[in-house]
Amino acid sequence: MALLVVVAALVVGGVQTAGGDVSASGRLTGAAILLAATAALYWRRRRPAVVLAVTAAAAVGYYLLGYPLGPEPLPFVVALYATAEAGRRMIAVAAVPVAVGLVLAADVTAGRTPEGEDLVAVAAVLVAAVGLGELARSRREQRQAYAEQAATQERLRIARDLHDTLAHQLTAISVQAGAALHKRDSRPELAYPALETVRQVAGDALREVRAVLGAVRVDPAGGQNACEAVPALGARAGLAVTMSVSGEAVALPPHVDAATYRIAQEALTNVGRHAGVTEVEVRLAYLPRHVEIEVLDRGNGGAGGDGRVPGGHGIAGMRERVTALGGRFSAGPRPGGGFRVWAMLPR
After folding, report:
1. Where in the numbering of this chain does the Histidine kinase/HSP90-like ATPase domain appear (predicted)?
2. Which of 84, 183, 239, 285 could form a disulfide with 92 if both were Cys (CB 3.0 to 4.6 A apart)?
3. Strands 279-286 and 290-297: what pairing?
4. 261 part of a folded domain
């Protein structure tokens, strides 16, 4: 609407200040014609081609009726820009030579001698309007593409976080619940700690899922760094973790620390689910430019021996998480049996 007000002010001012021997009533009529064309611009985004034709007819009519020259092209130029911006490229491009031809025909009809320089100037203005409209459309589509890409990345992040959270927590609940059932008759006093662990893990899972779905980035390790939190992850999954740390265990950037934790979480979950062993080795190396994490077991390597279970997304999710941070990732069977997950993340 602001654009329409500006165009209206310009055409009215242009009609009133333009030279020429035109009566006051003639100027009012000319201003009315151009204001009607300006009003048509309100529909320039819904019906760009129609508005382009209306503004062209108004400009030609204004010119042929002999009203003061100067402001008559303005509504048409705005409509031409809007047509190009709306993606109607062929119509906008075709309108340029048609408009130049109409100006030439109007000059001849009105008994004026066409000026080559004037026609070149008209063509240049119209080409500029089309070019600017195309540029605006391109930038808009680029912003939309960036927004869609960001939305896709956020959906992938949420999916990874949900998978990592639920897979580990549900595995831990299954292990601890199975232990409680096994001991409920022979050693009932040992069943209660397992049930308490189930309660705690379920509460943690609920909080993390709420945080993920609420798009709130929380520290998945609960205030601990990945180095401190990994052994507890193994214990929850019923695994005995042998942890080795090399290098100086410095504080990592939050996103790197969170990714390290999530990789360890998913790898340990896979061991608990598919490896058929209760012991696992985790190696964490703090190097000058990056951090490496390696999870090793001597189990059966999962379904098919490659660590990938039909329908599962754990390996792919870890790979995506590492790649998103510019790191490197590998996962596969170990020589002599077992499975290895390795990731390198830049610091």
Report:
1. 261-346
2. 84
3. antiparallel
4. yes
pLDDT for residue 20: 61
Residue where one domain finishes, among candidates 68, 96, 114: 114
Number of domains in the chain: 2
On whether the CB atoms of residues 297 and 267 are closer than 8 A, the answer is: no
180-212 pLDDT, tens digit per residue, is 777 776 777 677 677 777 777 777 777 677 666
Q: Which residues pair with 279 in a beta bridge?
A: 240
Yes or no: say if 209 and 158 are a contact pair by the CB < 8 Å rule: no
- Picking from 7, 102, 94, the residue whose alpha carbon sits closest to that of residue 62 is 102
CB atoms within 10 A of CB 248: 8
Task: Determine the number of helices (DSSP H) and then strands (DSSP E) in the chain.
Answer: 10, 5
Residue 82 Cα distances to 8, 62, 92, 118, 138, angstroms: 17, 22, 9, 24, 13
Coil, helix or strand for 75? helix
Average pLDDT over residues 66-71: 72
Is residue 146 included in any domain, yes or no?
Answer: no
Helix (H, G, I), strand (E, B) or coil at 176: helix
Tokens read off for 64: 């042929």
Its domain, for residue 36, covers: 2-114
Dihedral sign from CA coordinates of 327, 331, 335, 339: positive
What are the distances in angstroms from CA 324 to CA 93, 157, 317, 346? 42, 10, 11, 11
Strand-pair partners of 294: 283, 342
- Contact yes or no for 68/22 (Cβ under 8 A): yes
